Structures are given as C-alpha cells and as structure tokens.
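dumping this here before i forget
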Amino acid sequence: MLIPDLLAYWLTGAVGGEITNASTTGLLDAGTGTWSRDIAALVGLDPRLLPPLREPGTLAGRLLPHVAAFTGLPAATPVVAVASHDTASAVVAVPATEPRSAFISCGTWSLAGLELDAPVLTETSRAANFTNERGIDGTIRYLRNIMGMWLLEECRRGWAARGLPAELAPLLAEAARAEPFAALIDPDAPEFLAPDDMPAAIADHCVRTGQRPPSSRGA
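structure:
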C-alpha cells in the first residue's frame, strides 16, 4: 500500500488503494482505470497484493475502537478518502472556468497539464513524456513534469555556501531590476539536474551557447 492508504488502514483496518495516487505508480491501465495484471506481471508483482481501488470522496472505513479512544473522537467516526496525490488535490483548487484551461502546479518540480475526460494514449504523447493520471470525479490529469523552482533553490544554496546573502525577497527585487532576457537557458537541460554549483553551471551554459553569463545574482 502507498503511504496514504497505509494511514487509512491504520485508522480503519480497511484495505484499499486511493485511485489518484495509485495512478502514479504506473501499475494502472490508463484506459480502464483498473490495476493492470499485465504490467504487474512484467515487474514481477503478484496482482493479488494490489488493494481494491477507491475513489476520492468515498468512505474508506470507520475509526477502529482503539483509535477512537486514543483521539477522543466518537466511535465509528467515518473516514473519507481524499485525493491523496498532492497534485490531484491541488488541481481541484484551480479556479478554471473554461473547459480548455491548463494548469501549472509549481514546486521544486512543476507539473503542467490539462484536465481531460479521457486519456491520451498516442505514441506522440508517450514520446513527449506526458502521463495520464487520475483526478477527481473520473477526470484525467494529463500532464508532464517540468523544471520548477529547483534552479532558484540550488542557486540560493550555492550562494549561502559561499557566505553570500540568499534571502528570497532581496533576490527577487534584484531580478526585477535586471535586464530581461539577457540570456536564455533550457531549465530542463541535463546539466541542471544535479550540479555541484548551480550558479556556475548556469554561467558555463551561457558561455558554451555563446551568451553573456549573468552579471549579478538577480540576472
């Protein structure tokens, strides 16, 4: 079981797999939304170990007596499954009113995508690293991972290691004063995944691509 499902099991004693999180394992059939026995067999996993799937918003179970006693909650308090994958819950909160709206869930890595009624299972989609994950109310979170705040976080870490100020607010103010688009980089380039020194990696990339390296931290 995935961690949210394990927590639900400890609370209720009921075994289940919440579908939005289960869909990120790669073990679901994207078309049917059920566990794929073929994929499980390919990775050597006994399909009988896969828990029954549950939708967010459905009853996961009721509090076990000892849990109710420990927490002070009423006996048999209902425990409702949530969209336990964080992006699935985040997408629900997107204030989109148009059917053709896109979203970006931003963090260290960002997830850019759409909410669809059906999965996209083309070779072009697969080659572009898009995935069909489950959302609320049977929707498909059609998305791909892209670079988020990783470059900024690693730059701040590198500057702090050199004893330089790395507070976010002054850096953002300095960036606002910098010349826009003085250099362009591909944030998804392999050299930015795990460099020892991110500011140096960015400067080296600019030099290698015939661009002027940043003249300040804000640049």
